[in-house]
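Narrative summary of target 7.
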Amino acid sequence: MKSAAVLGASGYGGGELIRLIDGHPSLQVTYLGAHSQTGKRLEDVHPQLGDSNRVLEANTADLEGVDVVFLALPHGASAPLASDLAGRGVAVVDLGSDFRLDTPERYEDAYGSVHPFPDQLADWTYGLPELVDMGDTNRVASPGCYPTATLLGLAPLLAAGAVAFEGIVVNAVSGVSGAGRSLSENLLFGAVAEGVTAYGVTTHRHRPEIEMALEAYTGRSPVRLTFTPHLVPMLRGIHATITVPVSDGVTANDLRGVLAEFGDGKPFYQVVSGPPQTRWAVGSNRAIVSVYLDESTGNAVILSVIDNLLKGAAGQAVQAANLMLGFDEVAGLPNSGWMP
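Modeled conformation, tokenized:
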């Protein structure tokens, strides 16, 4: 049995990590770290996890004998801890955004600040197992939720030459849990219920991440796209609608064939014939995708849904850790959703 620490255990992502690891056949949680909730019992912070005498301690890099550390911390908080831990040979999966981008310039473009460890960015593996070989690494930067949904729908078609690299438009919606657990006026029930709101229009930090991953997977640079996220009044789930011109002579069957071939042998990738619904994916680590050809415009319409807290966060992190540690890729991960 391997030991795991979860730092940032009080948030939504941290809670899901604990739930998944508690059910894992080869991992056990031996340390729980938090910031504002330090000293509280786990059951008081995450009552959904049941009765537990475990106590949240401080976030720290001083962890002896831990095999893997999961960091579920706000932007900017994980970099010093991740750098210290990985530098000492500890396996680290960072669910935050501090090491996702490949160059200091791209990081500054996305976040408007200088990276504290620019020389280390190239040492981290982008943790999307369907696209990237985890290989021999002890440093995994887990992708963002919007990039995960977008990349799993778009990247296979781009790499196969079935669609164009120009004119890519991504419109995506997310449940409010994607914004985290911290109190925010614009996330109050009265601000969210019965409405849909676009945010980060033309400036969202996940756009450079999506472009980076597409460039790495296809070997073509630069890739540019328009990305517009929306907040919708549901708890969890992401639905990405991607429109992009198809290449000459490509048919609807060709598009579906590319996705089907890509998904072959990938346990958390499902291609469906109709429009997927977020509630099919919620509670599971699956990405569910479909694709259509709009004959009137010559555009492919790609639909991709995930659970933002599982395939978009905790589930994907455990999937990457499984591969890093030599476990079965599916160990401890749900493949079925919670519908209804």
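The chain has two domains: 2-142+313-325, 146-306.
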